[in-house]
Specification:
Elements: H1 8-28, H2 31-42, H3 61-64, H4 73-85, H5 91-105, H6 143-152, H7 157-164, E1 171-172, E2 181-182, H8 193-209, H9 214-224, H10 231-238, H11 240-251, H12 253-268
Antiparallel strand pairs: 1-2
Helix pairs in contact: 1-5, 2-5, 4-5, 7-11, 7-12, 8-9, 8-11, 10-11, 11-12
The structure holds protoporphyrin IX containing FE (HEM).
The site of protoporphyrin IX containing FE has 23 residues, from helix 2, helix 7 and strand 1.
């Protein structure tokens, strides 16, 4: 098929696909895995070599079989049903549109979506080159690792914390990542509860270590019982620079939504200069 161009017809198709995605994601309750797919296609970007990024390459077996992508074939197949109805739309645009819609239908902020992801400033086209394994973050590692990975994408400390707030949705599956459980009590609702829980646990454990308030500690254990915190979530309250944002987002959901929408847009446009 000839490379598509972003004209009125393409934009119309995007709007139709957006509507189909809204209905599909709501009926299947699959917002979390669709968001994770969008992030894993985009999160391989390398700002220095201008390789990887939201270019649709995750559709290839070579890439979706990377350990970090375990389970994402389900989301790729979901997207395929939309692609069949709207073949004009590139995979690169489709995966990012699915991520934006996933946040929207679960109550999160509206994220600007600009279609027309290009390869190396040329035509609007999906990439057929897969990045090597190892570009996505390892949940068992600490603050320096998160910075190495996100700075390589050209993103900042604020982006790291805001985007980690996506863990307000979904859960970990032992057969995919080795971790288990949801981060929040309502894993299909996009809100700031991920930060509220991180903030509570950290401030309470500080008080407990100062031998204060046993009642509060019991309350807290009730609040966070059975909920997940990856090592890479915990570092967000241990590192002072990250923690500034955790504290802000725990107290002010509007600030989180505003920063999340900006960081998500940046992530979804890595290596792509919108027209
Ligand atoms: C799930 C790690 C950042 C969105 C997961 C899982 C891990 C993980 C281990 C569990 C996968 C499974 O077992 O199914 C990390 C690490 C990050 C990170 C180390 C570094 C900061 C992000 C970002 C986003 C995101 C930036 C989106 C903007 C999600 C979602 C799920 C998830 C929505 C739930 C998927 C589901 O329920 O199927 N992440 N993640 N994560 N991640 Fe992340």
């Amino acid at each position: 098929m000839a490379a598509p161009i972003v004209d009125a017809e393409y934009l119309k198709e995007i709007e139709k696909a957006r509507r189909d995605l809204r209905a599909f994601i709501s009926s299947k309750n699959c917002a979390p895995i669709m968001l994770r797919l969008a992030w894993h296609d985009a999160g391989t970007y390398d700002v220095h070599t201008k390789t990887g990024g939201p270019n649709g390459s995750i559709r290839f077996e070579e890439e979706y079989n990377h350990g970090a992508n375990a389970g994402l074939k389900i989301a790729l197949d979901f997207c395929e049903t939309i692609k069949e109805k709207h073949p004009k739309i590139t995979y690169a645009d489709l995966y990012q549109l699915a991520g934006v819609v996933a946040v929207e239908v679960t109550g999160g902020p509206t994220i600007d979506f600009v279609p027309g992801r290009k390869i190396a400033c040329f035509t609007i086209q999906d990439s057929s080159v897969c990045p090597k394994e190892g570009r996505l973050p390892d949940a068992k590692k600490g603050a320096q690792h998160l910075r190495d990975i996100f700075y390589r994408m050209g993103l900042s400390d604020k982006d790291i914390v805001a985007l980690s707030g996506a863990h307000t949705l979904g859960r970990a599956h032992p057969e995919r990542s080795g971790f288990e459980g949801a981060w929040t009590k309502e894993p299909l609702k996009f809100d700031n509860s991920y930060f509220v829980l991180l903030f509570l646990v950290k401030s309470m454990s500080e008080k407990i270590s100062m031998r204060m308030n046993h009642c509060h500690s019991e309350l807290l254990q009730g609040e966070s019982a059975g909920l997940l915190k990856l090592p890479s979530d915990k570092v967000l309250v241990e590192d002072p620079e990250f923690r500034r944002y955790v504290d802000l987002y725990a107290k002010d959901e509007d600030a989180f939504f505003k920063d999340y929408a900006e960081s998500h847009r940046k992530l979804s446009e890595l290596g792509f200069t919108p027209p």
